[in-house]
Amino acid sequence: MDSTGDSWAKTQHDLPTTDAGLGQTRPDDAGRDGGLPLISRGHALGRYLVIEPLGAGAMGVVYRAFDPDLDRSVALKLVGGLHEGSEGDDERARLLREAQAMARLSHPNVIPVFDVGILDDAVFVAMELVDGLTLRAWMAERPREPAEILPVFLDAGRGLAAAHDAGLVHRDFKPDNVMIGHDGRVRVLDFGLARATGAEPTRSAEVDEIRSSRRGSVGTSLDRSMTAAGAVMGTPAYMAPEQLMGEPAGAAADQFAFCIALFEALLGARPFSGTTMATLSMSVLQGKITMPPGSRGRAPGWVLAVLQRGLQVDAAERFPSMHELLEALSHDPARRRRRWWIGLGAAGVLGAGTLLGAAMTPEPEPVLEAPALCTGAEAAMTESWSPARADELGEAFAATGLAHAPPTWTRTRAELDAFAAAWVAEHTAACRATRVTGEQSTERLDLRMACLDRQRQQLGALLDELATPDPEVVARAIDAARRLPRPERCGELEALHTVTPEPEAPELRERLAELRREVDRVRSQVVLGHLIEARRRLDPLLPRVEGLDFPPLSAEVLDLAADLEADTGDLEVARRIGERAYVAATAAGDARLAASIARGQAFLVGNQLVHGEDGRHWVALSRASLRRLGGDGELEARLASAEGAIEVAAGHYAEALRAHARAREHWQARAPSGPDLAAVLDDIGAVHVVRGELDEAIALHRESLRLKELSYGPDHPQVAASLRELGSALSHAERYDEALEQFERGLAIDRATRGEHNRSVAVALDDIGRVLRRQGKLGEAIEHHRRALAIWEAVLGDPHPDLAVSLLNVGYTLVAAERFEDALVELRRALAMFEATVGPSHPYIVYASNSVASTLIDLGRYDEARPHLERVLAIEGLEVDPTLIAETRFMLAHALWADGGASAPERSRARELAREALAGYRTQAERWGPQIEQIEAWLAEHG
Domain span at residue 154? Predict the structure, then answer.
């Protein structure tokens, strides 16, 4: 508690705040990408003299430059736009290693690298300056025959093969990255996206940045958006399925891109159609090859059959390496005067519109369409999600009149597109595994299809709720779309083995299907913030579900009920319902659901209710379920965050940082520009605040804010939440004007997006009030807290722990204004409300009891203060910051001694309490120096 006066309430602890909840680049584009300014002619970059810019790419700018030491012109590429700090250092080190590996590679079909290094924090690569055309420009010069095209691609393929042999993967092979010199030699260039074979894949560069690209490509042409590299590690129009799905991209991905480019050169169009990122992804992930109109006879059938193998969805079904692919392309069967077959997997079937491997004659053969097996996924998805449905929802969002609604819908639509593409791919893969390749039983196919059907139903329920958006729906829409289940989970063998068989009786199956639809609707209402309506539906639904005696659905509905109770403030009820949910999930054998429920219980019990040991027990249960599941990186990361929260509540800040670091490591590897990482950074920043490490905290909160703005847009409520975190850190650093700037911006966003009477607005008003109090502007501070309190009372009702927190804020400010009697009224009301909502042993009881006692001490009413302090010290098993109890002990020491009738034993106890308080503060001596000095002086005086 703090204030500006000399009262006991000033010294020590602030209550934790309450929170609601791809086009080529033109030469004149040089310098606009990669975060690098355009460099003028004659400027020196190290020993190189810049002559002119040649172009810009996703990672930097390329210049024609002169090397005076060796008297030659070079192509000088500068790679910028790197992160600051240690992360940027790591990026520079990786780029240097890759360029150095390329410098060691010598092959006639790979552009030579002469020199690498660092210039002003940018990595530079000096390469051979090729006088000639890109392969794309060469293809566009005039129509070319296969006999002219194949030798050029064979040379380019040899360059790729040489790089693969050296342990490098290009990751962005396309006609723009191949040069044909006027000397006729073909060179592959721009290995700037290469990654050493076996290096840890960065899922973000594949999944999250592709999503980012997809968000920017809605409604744009494929030529403009799908062939630009942008922030994506590769070019989407040439990406292999594993890149689109976020899997590690090896040499087989280069093979896939090579086959797309050769197909395009021969037939005039790429094999996979799609005018947006979502439709292109669906085509690629289904292996749906489209023959361009009028292309019959333009390419030899045997070449197309070779390409078909290189374009297999499963990388294992492609050629073992580029060498085998080049070998196949080098042997024209017409020259060997025989027929041959190219094996293409079971029956050679890829799907509707794909190539059919067949006996090929020496003459060009037409490419036939395969039988229509496993082709219904896209049509099934269209029943729920289609461009027309997306347009309807977009109009509904726009009709809200909220300025941030249209950009929010664009991001939400991108997430829904991504889900739909993944669902179609998984549906097709499940079908093919049984109907085409025969590697999967019919029973497992049924399980996978049932899982996918439920996921599509959950999508439909969410879309129905999105159709009537209000401010809260708009605020939560992006996250709700992100929370849809991942379709690939329906292919996980371990998870399918735990599925409880459905009832055999038709009437029970019908009841189960109906109840699932209702549960899915309630879930969508909860995630979109329609809590009153959700409770209205859930109360009669719960006994109906439990009466069916089907544990998997009982676990789902109980988990939803626990979430609702926790949100409305009844944490003990939420705990009891959560326990029942876990038992039901365990009975159902659903390891993933059990792990998720246990994680939620760990946070509720260990952080919100501050029962540390019980919380850690739930962590162990969640981890055990994850082991049965075979692991789940996302759930493990969220569990690590829960662990961190438990240790924060217990005052174990070093342990909290270690747990949060594990979560951070996961999200940095999987989604380094996403909101999940932003949330973890805010968690870590908050720990640094309580440790007094304010520079670290401010830097983390600024990075979180940047990521939130990227993920949601600058005017989204999630951005306001990060502004509050940053403002809090700045306030603790006594940078009050800067803190107010962040809080005021966040308040403006909350008001514009959610209206005046909303929890987030109340939180922001309380935040501003605290800063004003610290600045000594007590009248303004009281006004802000009173306005916040009115909103809390209107939104939550009485009692609620968040309302009690707001009452404490009012009380603290009244104490600072020396209005002690008025303060006591609010502080006692807060204490009673905490007792009614969080129980008698919660840290909130400590805050409120200390506050009441400190105010009574200020009034000289020591005998009334002592019972409140004794009560705190009598709480068993309390795990909190030791400095909070140190505050209690020293206040009690003061009260015992100051009471004129204190006996010798009482005075002896007072000295012992002071020494214990001193030891507690010394655990964080760097933060609590003034308190340590105060107690030392008191002991010296009362020794």
Answer: 133-348
